[in-house]
Amino acid sequence: MLTGGQLAGLIVAVFWAVLVAFVALTLLRLARLLGEASKLVRDLGDQAAPLLDDMTTTVKRANEQLGRTDVITKQVAGVTQNVSAVTTVMTSVVGGPLVKAAAFSYGVRKALSGRDGDGRSAESGRPQLQARSAGKGRK
């Protein structure tokens, strides 16, 4: 039979053996986890390089399109200025004579219309000044 000191030593030895087994099992699981994590990082790195290349190509193409858009915008601004200049010229060339022609035709129509009560005398056909009614003159 075992004595008290031997029994205590045996219990301590069993405790240390269980503790070492637990730590060894935990370390094995941690090693597997680190192996999987390193594999995942490696795969991610392998996939990241082509993605970055594609992204670089996309950004270059977007910059080219923006450059083209800038050129088109400048050309549209030039066309707008040209249209504005043509509009100004056409207004001055056509607008002035057109207004004069309209005023002349209005005057001719008024002169030829023989309506009564428009301030013209029936005999002479010339406009006459009408007297102001009392109280409505300048003060």
How would you characterize the overall build of this protein?
- The protein has 139 residues and is mainly alpha-helical.
- Helices cover 78% and strands 0% of the residues.
- The protein has 1 helix and no strands.
- The chain has one helix at 4-112.
- The longest helix is centred in the middle third of the chain and has 109 residues, at 4-112.
Short description:
The chain has 139 residues and is mainly α.
Question: Which range does the strand content fall in?
Answer: under 5%
Largest sheet entry:
none
Spell the H/E element sequence.
H
Q: Any idea what the shape is?
A: rod-shaped
Fraction of helical residues: over 70%
**Termini distance?**
145 Å
Any descriptors?
rod-shaped; 139 residues; mainly alpha; 1 helix
How would the blueprint of this fold be written?
Layout: H1 4-112
